[in-house]
Design a protein that fits this description.
- The complex is a heterodimer of chains A (113) and B (115).
- Chain A has 113 residues and is mainly beta.
- Helix content of chain A is 0%, strand content 50%.
- The termini of chain A are far apart.
- Chain B has 115 residues and is an all-beta fold.
- Chain B is built from no helices and 12 strands.
- The chains are: A mainly beta (113), B mainly beta (115).
- Chains A and B meet through strand 4, strand 5, strand 9 and strand 10 of A and strand 6 and strand 11 of B.
Amino acid sequence: NAGVTQTPKFRILKIGQSMTLQCAQDMNHNYMYWYRQDPGMGLKLIYYSVGAGITDKGEVPNGYNVSRSTTEDFPLRLELAAPSQTSVYFCASTGRGGRETQYFGPGTRLLVL
Amino acid sequence: AQKITQTQPGMFVQEKEAVTLDCTYDTSDPSYGLFWYKQPSSGEMIFLIYQGSYDQQNATEGRYSLNFQKARKSANLVISASQLGDSAMYFCAMREGPGTDKLIFGTGTRLQVFP
């Protein structure tokens, strides 16, 4: 199993550009999440999904969009990038509830200039 | 509102000594889960240990143990016999209510282990 994979690893965007951060998992997990981590801070939830076709906002959704057309993939779309979106983005997935942890991808480092 | 607080921005410990990283939480939900993650300088999030709100005993995983005091709403991580490789950021997280498994993270504690 590859677990949770994310692409790209690093990207520099100009203000106003758009991009999609890719996330895929091969563990057949229904639950998937996108977090951002600003320097020296904890992770904050952007969007999450409890299954294909179902998404919902987290704590900091502004400036982002998501879709979940398959169980495996959960892309995050940035429209009109702003310097405030400079961050490290983590995708995670988990099986349903209980004692199971969330499994995190390696992260995407995004710099908006 | 649910909240996780880590009040120690940084901690130092000598190799082979034990160290406690503090975590307090606030929730009105009787069913919740508490997690600790390690984030080394390479950036990945590594799961360490889990404690369920109904667990009767404190969780242990190798050199990691969780000092769970439910009445005080604290879930402190204890690392025994510290190693140089334990130097990292440590995050406490709480799983929010049923149905979504969302996590709320604290701001983290940077642990530095010195020889």
